[in-house]
Specification:
Elements: H1 2-41, H2 44-61, H3 77-80, H4 91-98, E1 109-113, H5 119-126, E2 131-136, H6 139-151, E3 160-165, E4 177-183, H7 188-204, E5 209-214, H8 219-223, E6 228-235, E7 239-246
Parallel strand pairs: 1-2, 1-4, 2-3, 4-5
Antiparallel strand pairs: 5-7, 6-7
């Protein structure tokens, strides 16, 4: 009996050690694959810089979102024409943009349009936001985000999270939303429609608003409806972001 108990205890200890080890190996492999992807499509220096911040950022914000997804299996072919692949925003550039926000705006609502696996939702909670929402066209991405949300309860008890599947062209922008995050999630056609939705929300409830926009290809669409660029950063050519600001007249 004693021998059986010892064997059982040893097995339990082995299993408890094996699970964290398995997780560490899985994370390491995700970083390696992401490094290879960036090095192949851009360059090795950028890959090293980005992956360094991936490791640091995932530990800091308690999120696991490194990787690439073509989305071919999770959204329709028609929608895929207007969407980009899933690639997480660089922690480095996203942190720079969050740091530009005044404290009072963190007491309002945050919306990530094209939230992917929820990375910037966790970052928003870390920076003090309490009402945090995300939309994505991919049901698979939303499922991942909702799993992550369940794990964040102990890290961000002050925050309320909500993520749902929806086309950005159809979203009713919540009237409490005053900060929107974008990482070039869709093309100009969808961006035009989304900005119209934002403008409708601002007309219904005039308020100050900030847009944190990484890889800002369609910044001019926002500027056309009254947003002003107040911050710009670019590093290693590819890591670029702007902060757009709207103040009702």
């Amino acid at each position: 009996m004693a021998g059986q108990q010892t064997h059982s205890a040893t097995g339990a200890r082995f299993e408890s050690c094996r699970q964290p080890l398995s997780g560490m190996l899985s994370n390491a492999w995700a970083y390696i694959r992401y490094f290879i992807f960036i090095a192949r499509h851009w360059d090795i220096r950028l890959a090293a810089f980005v992956v360094y911040h991936e490791i640091k950022g995932e530990h800091k914000y308690k999120t696991r979102s490194t990787g690439i997804d073509t989305l071919h299996s999770s959204i329709s072919a028609e929608d895929l024409q207007h969407a980009s692949i899933y690639q997480p925003v660089s922690f480095y550039i996203a942190e720079l943009l969050f740091q530009q926000l005044p404290f009072h705006i963190t007491q309002t609502g945050f919306l990530d349009a094209g939230c992917g696996k929820g990375r910037t939702m966790a970052m928003a909670a870390y920076h003090g936001f309490k009402q945090i929402e995300g939309i994505d066209l991919s049901a698979a991405m939303i499922a991942h985000t909702n799993t992550a949300i369940a794990s964040w309860a102990s890290y961000y008890p002050h925050a309320s999270f909500h993520a749902w599947q929806q086309n950005a062209m159809d979203v009713q922008v919540p009237l409490h939303t005053s900060v929107i995050f974008l990482f070039n999630p869709f093309d100009a056609f969808v961006m035009q429609a989304f900005v119209k939705r934002v403008a409708e929300s601002l007309q219904q409830q005039p308020r100050e608003m900030y847009v944190l926009y990484c890889n800002p290809l369609y910044k001019d669409i926002w500027e056309a409806v009254g947003f002003e660029s107040i911050f710009h950063s670019q590093k290693m050519h590819y890591l670029e972001g702007v902060v757009l600001h709207f103040l009702p007249k």
